[in-house]
Design goal:
Elements (H helix, E strand, L loop, with lengths): L1 E5 L8 H16 L4 E5 L10 H13 L8 H8 L2 E5 L9 H10 L6 E3 L5 E3 L5 E7 L9 H12 L5 E7 L9 H11 L1
Parallel strand pairs: 1-2, 1-3, 3-6, 6-7
Antiparallel strand pairs: 4-5
Length: 187
């Protein structure tokens, strides 16, 4: 199963969503599979606070992951592949991505620490694809993808990550449709 994490805002006009949907179409042509979509703006995500953290830690200590809090983590564990689509905002990604990552990084469910204290992933995910679009050029400031890649490689055990982008969409003189088409053609 491919799990699609949709962090696109204004999904009807989102250029990131357009690129992600093209990716999914091509993926289905070459590697048909079940696709589950999680639209983050429709999820009841909230930042960790003392109350939520205490409850979460209590469940983790008991090895009890049956609470609805762990719904996204269970869905994540079932996936073979992950697609994250997020616009490039403020040198990173929309805050919903961070909230999602807090919901899925669960010791004992999605990763564990081995006897040497090294994290090991507990999912079947073989590949992460991260798709973004930006009005300007990302250059060396790809903090969103770099964070996600680091988390997935170092905590969740997913070494195969790739980055797809369409950049410079709002630069005067650029043709956004041509830039998007070039990104689509490169898929």
């Amino acid at each position: 199963m491919l799990l699609y994490i949709d962090a696109c805002i204004n999904r009807d006009t989102s250029r990131t969503e357009r690129l992600a949907q093209a990716f999914l179409t091509k993926h289905q042509e070459t590697s048909p599979c079940k696709i589950r979509t999680v639209i983050l703006e429709e999820e009841p995500l909230s930042p960790l606070n003392a109350t939520i953290l205490a409850k979460r830690e209590d469940f983790i200590a008991k090895g009890d992951f049956s609470d609805k809090y762990f719904r996204l983590a269970h869905l994540f564990v079932q996936a073979d592949e992950l697609l994250i689509a997020a616009p490039y905002w403020d040198l990173s990604f929309p805050s919903a991505i961070k909230l999602f990552l807090e919901q899925i990084c669960i010791n004992g469910l999605t990763f564990r620490y081995n006897e040497k204290g090294i994290p090991e992933g507990l999912t079947a995910i073989k590949r992460l694809t991260y798709i973004t679009t930006s009005g300007g050029y990302i250059g060396p400031y790809n903090f969103g993808y770099d964070y996600v890649k680091g988390l997935f490689q170092n905590l969740l055990g997913v070494s195969d990550t790739r980055f797809i982008s369409a950049e410079g969409l709002d630069i005067y003189g650029n043709t956004p449709d041509d830039i998007l088409q070039n990104a689509l053609d490169a898929l």
